[in-house]
Amino acid sequence: MKVSGFTFLRNGQRLGYPFAESIRSILPIVDEFVVALGPCDDDTGKMLRAIGDPKIRIIPTQWNERIQPGYSVKGFVYGQQKSIALFNCTGDWAFYLEADEVVHENDLPKIRAAMERYLDDPRVEALVFDYLHFYGNANTVVWSPGWYRSEVRIIRNTVPAWSSEALFFNVVTAHKQSRYPRAAHTGATIYHYGWVRSEAQMNLKAAAVHKYWDEKPAAKVDYSRIDPAALKSFTGSHPKIVQGWLPKSDGLFQPDPNHKLTSREKKHRLMLKLERWLGIRFDKKHYRLVRS
C-alpha cells in the first residue's frame, strides 16, 4: 500500500499557517507529500525546503486571479489548487491536510490501520475524521452545527475525484454529474488551528483571499463576537509537533459579554439544544457513511 499526502500553499508564512507542523504530522505514515505551491512573496518555499524530507515534492503552480466569485461555486481557485496537488499523487490513498490542520501522533496507527483495512473494499472511497476547531486560544474549541464536525480527508486515488471547493471532494459519476464519496470513519481527529492565530493574521488572511469567495469586501475578524454557548474547554493534549507553535494562553477564551447573537447563531444554539434532547447531530456531511 502506497500513501500520498498532499496540500496547497501560498504565502503560508506571512499568513501565519503552521504548515510545516501540519506536513510533519503525517510524514511518518505517507510515502510522499505533494505540495502545490503558488506564487509567494514570503519565505514559504524556503521553510518547505527546510523540512528536509525527501518525501516532499513541490509542484509550482499559478493561481487564476480572474475567476469570478459570483458563480454558485465559491472558492473555485482553492479547489483548483487542491485538485492540482491531488492529480500529482501516486499513492493508493491520498491524504489531504489544509495548512492549519494537524494530526495527533497518537492517531497515526489507527489512520494507517483504516487505510489497510479498507484498501480492498471498493465500497469505501474515502475516510472521514472528526474535527476539533480551536478558537481564540489553544484551550478552547467551538462545538456547533455551524462548524463542520467531521470531514473527508483521505480519498481513494483510484476513483475519478476532484475538488470544486477546498473543503470537500467530488466523485465524478457522469459527464455532467458528481456526488460526495462513500466513506468509512478512521476513528481519528483533525486538530484545526486556523482560529488560534492572532486577529491581525486572520484579518491579513481575509484581505488576501476573500476575493476568491465573495465580491463584497471582507468583514473585519473579531474573535470576541461569538456565541459563548458554542465554546467548550479543551482538556486533551495537543500534538507534540505543534506545541511549540501554539501561542501561550490560560483558561477558556472569553467572548464579548455584550455580543448580540446573529440570527444564524440563534438557529445554531437551538439546534444544539435539540441535539442534546434528541441525541442526534445536525451536521452537513460531504460524504455518505457506508462503514462505521
What does this structure look like?
This protein has 292 residues and is α/β, with parallel strands linked by helices. The chain has a single domain (1-292), classed as Alpha-Beta Complex (Spore Coat Polysaccharide Biosynthesis Protein SpsA, Chain A), CATH 3.90.550. It has seven helices and 14 strands. Strand 9 (161-162) and strand 10 (170-174) form a beta hairpin. The longest helix has 16 residues, at 263-278. The radius of gyration is 19 Å and the shape is globular. The two termini are 22 Å apart. 36% of the residues are buried. The model has no long low-confidence stretch (mean pLDDT 93).
What are its keywords?
292 residues; alpha/beta; Spore Coat Polysaccharide Biosynthesis Protein SpsA, Chain A; eleven-stranded mixed beta sheet; 7 helices; 14 strands
The CATH class assignment is Alpha Beta
Broad structural category? alpha/beta
Specify the biggest β-sheet: 11 strands, mixed
* Alpha-carbon distance between the two ends: 22 Å
CATH architecture: Alpha-Beta Complex
- In percent, how much strand structure appears in the residues? 25-35%
Range of helix content: 10-25%
CATH topology: Spore Coat Polysaccharide Biosynthesis Protein SpsA, Chain A
Q: For the CA atoms, what is the radius of gyration? A: 19 Å
> Helix segment count?
7
Q: What does the overall shape look like?
A: globular
- Average per-residue pLDDT, rounded, comes to 93
Tally of distinct domains: 1
SSE blueprint:
Elements (H helix, E strand, L loop, with lengths): L2 E7 L9 H8 L5 E6 L6 H7 L5 E5 L15 H12 L5 E4 L4 E3 L4 H10 L8 E10 L4 E3 L7 E7 L4 E2 L7 E5 L2 E3 L2 E14 L3 H11 L21 E3 L6 H4 L19 H16 L9 E4 L1
Parallel strand pairs: 1-2, 1-4, 2-3, 6-12, 12-14
Antiparallel strand pairs: 4-8, 5-12, 6-7, 6-8, 7-13, 9-10, 10-11
